[in-house]
Amino acid sequence: MTGMTIDRAGLADFLRRSRDRVRPQDVGLPNGPRRRTPGLRREEVSQLAGMSADYYIRLEQARGPQPSPEMLAALARALRLSTDERNHLHLLAGRRPPAGRSSGDHVKPGLLHLLDQLPTTPVQVLGDLGDVLAQNAMAEALLGRVCSVSEHGRNVVWRWFTDSSQRAAYPADEHDYYSRLHVADLRAAVGRHVGDTAATRLVERLREASEEFAGLWELHEVAVRRTSRMRIVHPLIGMVDLDCQVLLAPEGDQRVVLYTPPAGSDTAERLALLKVVGTGQFAETG
């Protein structure tokens, strides 16, 4: 991965310590009486990883060539590394960690429980590409329901660029800001989904459907959305200022988005009113 450099000293130290943590019996080797340490020997690691002993020894001595992704994967298997340890190994070697297992559309019960435990705060769970996977009653009252019938109906980027009614809820002079925010965040997500057919199709359809999106996409701006300020013009409670806080789920391909009142604003009072009139209205029509 361009822009990344190998940390030879850190890589050497991590390999040595990881080797010390693996017991011979864990990898099917005899635990002979002549072992001076409980871990594996360098020659054993090289044999398990399918590389020459000299190559591996040079890595532990902080010299030699930069390991390839395939070599790092072999070392991770030989050393019985966890996913987090494997990713750390790649980063030390100046390589991009391999993509982890995707959560898909499944939202874990713990996240759903979190939504229910925040009855006065609008909360959504979004997929990496912007699909709304779950939201609580307050988020539905504030941001509206999500269409799950059409192919991209629940995708916030698709709706922003193809449904004019979505923009009506935001001040007109801030539309350009939100457009660039959506595109830069999607660009970062697509970069994490290289070769993914769903990501490719979403971008292709957006470029066909929206000249604005196509133009912004060509700028190649990248910015992961972590925090932002937003304003919504709600039909029941008027203009609402919100702080948008983005929390990543452990897998990294889902995010929890909380819409909270900025300090010194009257948003808390407006949300309290929305909880009374807005969520009740949705309950009656649901």
Low-confidence stretches: 282-286
What gyration radius follows from the Cα positions, in whole Å?
25 Å
- CATH third-tier fold name of the largest domain: Beta-Lactamase
Query: How many independent structural domains?
Result: 2
Main β-sheet: number of strands, strand sense, barrel status?
5 strands, antiparallel
Helix content: 40-55%
CATH architecture level-2 label of the largest domain: 2-Layer Sandwich
Task: Specify the number of helices.
Answer: 13
CATH class of the largest domain: Alpha Beta
Termini separation comes to 49 Å
Structural class: alpha+beta
**Extended strand count:** 5
SS strand fraction: 5-15%
Main-sheet strand order equals: 2-1-5-4-3
Cα shape: elongated
Give, in order, the helices and strands.
HHHHHHEEHHHHHHEEEH
Mean pLDDT: 87
Describe this structure as you would to a colleague:
- It contains 13 helices and five strands.
- The chain has helices at 8-21, 42-49, 53-60, 69-78, 83-92, 109-116, 137-143, 156-162, 164-167, 175-191, 197-209, 211-219, 267-285, and strands at residues 123-127, 132-135, 227-234, 238-248, 254-260.
- It has a five-stranded antiparallel sheet with strand order 2-1-5-4-3, with helices on both faces.
- 26% of the residues are buried.
List the helices and strands and how they pair.
Layout (H helix, E strand, L loop, with lengths): L7 H14 L20 H8 L3 H8 L8 H10 L4 H10 L16 H8 L6 E5 L4 E4 L1 H7 L12 H7 L1 H4 L7 H17 L5 H13 L1 H9 L7 E8 L3 E11 L5 E7 L6 H19 L1
Antiparallel strand pairs: 1-2, 1-5, 3-4, 4-5
Helix pairs in contact: 2-3, 2-4, 4-5, 7-13, 8-10, 10-12, 11-12
